[in-house]
C-alpha cells in the first residue's frame, strides 16, 4: 500500500488553475487563497503561497487560522472569514460551490486537486493544484505487480483525483478520501482479510498506518514520526528502493536457509563421527585435532557464504 503525496509523487505540487467567480478577479482569488494558506505547512498550501509570491502579491498575516485535516483551512482576515477547502468542508458549512460540476470533474480527472475559496460567506473562485509523479514510480509499481504483489494507493484526495493518479501508475485498487487518522483503520481491514500488508509512506499522517502494517516502510526523506513508526527506513525517497529492499530481504533469507542447511549437514554427520559411531564397525576414531579443524571449517563456510552478500547488486 503506497501513500500518494511525497511517496509516489514529488510532494511539491504547483498551482495550475485559478478560476474566479462572480465579480472577483483572478488576482483576488489568488490573494485570498494565499492569505488563508499562509500559516499552513501542507504542500498544497505551499503551492498556493508560492504562486502568489511569484505574481508579486502582498500576503498579509491572517488574524486567525484553523487547519481542518483532510478538508481545508479557515482563516480570519480584517474581521472576515476566508475558507479554502474541498467539497466536504463546504457541505459541512451548508455552502454550495457555485461552479459547474463538469468543469470541477474535468480538473480532478486530470489528477488535479480542486479547492474552492470563499470570502464573506460567498464562493469567490476555485483554485487547482497538481502534483507530479516521481520518475521511478511507474517502474516500481510495474515491477511489484509482475512479482505477484497487489499494489494499492491510499490518499486523502477525492476519489476522482486519486483514480487519475492511479491510472497513470497502473494501480487498480484505490482507497481515497481517507482522513489521516483513518489510514491505520484501512490497513487493519486489509490485514483482517488475511493479507500481509506492507505500507509505504513518508508523512506524519502515515505514522499510525506504518505502525499498523505487517511491515512499515518509511522513505528516508520523510518525517521523524514516520521514520520512528516504520520497520524499514530507506535512505532515499526513491520508490524503486522499495523494490530493492524487498529483493534484498529475499536474498538475505536465501542465505540464511543456505547457512542453516550446511550447518545442519556438517553437524548431523560430524557429531556422530566425532562421538565414535564408526568405531564398532571400522575401528575408526576421529582425531580431536581433525574434529576441531572440521568444526572451524563448517563455521568458516557459513561466514564465507554470508560474506558473498557483499556482491549483491540492486535489481533496479
Describe the structure.
With 316 residues, the chain is of the alpha/beta class. Helix content is 45%, strand content 19%. The protein is built from twelve helices and twelve strands. It has helices at residues 26-37, 43-54, 87-92, 101-109, 137-146, 159-169, 183-192, 207-212, 224-229, 240-275, 279-282, 288-307; strands at 2-3, 14-20, 64-68, 72-77, 80-85, 112-119, 122-130, 152-154, 173-175, 198-201, 215-219, 232-234. The strands form three sheets. The protein has a six-stranded antiparallel sheet, sandwiched between helices. Strand 6 (112-119) and strand 7 form a beta hairpin. The longest helix has 36 residues, at 240-275. The relative contact order is 0.11. The mean pLDDT is 89.
The secondary-structure element order is: EEHHEEEHHEEHEHEHEHEHEHHH
Q: Describe the strand arrangement of the main beta sheet, using strand numbers.
A: 2-7-6-5-4-3
Low-confidence stretches: none
Mean pLDDT: 89
Distance between the termini: 20 Å
Which helices and strands occur, and which strands form pairs?
Layout (H helix, E strand, L loop, with lengths): L1 E2 L10 E7 L5 H12 L5 H12 L9 E5 L3 E6 L2 E6 L1 H6 L8 H9 L2 E8 L2 E9 L6 H10 L5 E3 L4 H11 L3 E3 L7 H10 L5 E4 L5 H6 L2 E5 L4 H6 L2 E3 L5 H36 L3 H4 L5 H20 L9
Parallel strand pairs: 1-8, 8-9, 10-11, 11-12
Antiparallel strand pairs: 2-7, 3-4, 4-5, 5-6, 6-7
Helix pairs in contact: 1-2, 4-6, 5-10, 10-12
